[in-house]
Specification:
Layout: H1 2-5, H2 18-26, H3 36-45
Length: about 60
């Protein structure tokens, strides 16, 4: 997705815990790709926001 848009992707950290990822994003450490199902409460509370991007949401096969 980034490559197709000509935007370099710089990965600062990699985590396997959705909770840790959400906390990092809420604290302002950057953006993340997560399932909307895991972020419902945080989105409703305004702790996280959905960044509009062409081609989103991604659909799994």
């Amino acid at each position: 997705m980034y490559k197709d848009a000509g935007v370099p992707l710089c990965i600062g950290s990699e985590m396997s815990s959705n909770e840790a990822i959400k906390q990092m994003c809420a604290a302002g450490f950057g953006a993340a790709f997560l399932s909307l199902h895991t972020c419902g409460l945080e989105l409703q509370a305004g702790m996280l926001v959905l960044i509009p991007k062409a081609g989103n949401p991604l659909q799994r096969e």
